[in-house]
Amino acid sequence: MNVPKQSMRHLIGSLFREAGEAMDRVGCFLQGSLAYKEDLNRTRRVMKFKNFKPSVQPSSFIAPNASVIGSVSLGPNSSVWYNVVIRGDVNSIQIGENTNIQDRVIIHCTGKVGHEKPTIIGNNVTVESGAILHACTLEDESYIGFGATVLDGAVVGRGAMIAPGAVVTPGTIVPGGEIWAGVPAKKLRELTPEEQESIKKSAAELSELAQVHKQEQDKEFEELLHDMETFKFREDRLEEYTYEKVESPSSTAPTKN
Q1: Is CATH 1.10.1040.10 the classification given to domain 46-198?
Q2: What superkingdom heads the lineage (predicted)?
Q3: pLDDT > 90 in the chain, percent
């Protein structure tokens, strides 16, 4: 029977790690009350919560330090960038396809009795860095600016834009094709056709960029070693650079006799 090299390496690595944990437990037992036990939690990008396990499409990208927890579904070619937290522990969170959730975004839902609301994010949506989404709905091709907040029961219509730093209060309905700004957010104006096209373009560009990050993240150990060798500093490459010699003032100053 032919066993894939990657699977064999994973199996052997797991055995070593489990053996190390077992030896640590034996050592703590022997030390008794004098033992110092350090509890370590393995970092997991995708984590099950109770009976809810995230559903992630193979073509999607989740950054190494992002957290996707519980009842979360992530559509094809969507991306969850660095330091994002998507927590579907009290209700569900749905994210469509070609949608990008950028760095440091927080997405949650609500499970309060009588006020249960999921978070639903459509297709080709852009959520810029630092935004907070809570129990709201973002329709297809909507755009949430840097640091904006969209709260419980709010709906951002198709092709609408929320300006950076704006706060969309609970229950607010933002019609499609409009830009809203301020605290609380109010209608600013209608979006131009060029701006609406720019929203679509942004989602497509981020989807392509995410695939580059995903390719780098999925590299095998041998590929990483090859990259390290390729980009290793070599003294013989210094000839490719030129430097302008600058003499220090002390070297040009006249000497006293």
Answers
A1: no
A2: Eukaryota
A3: 63
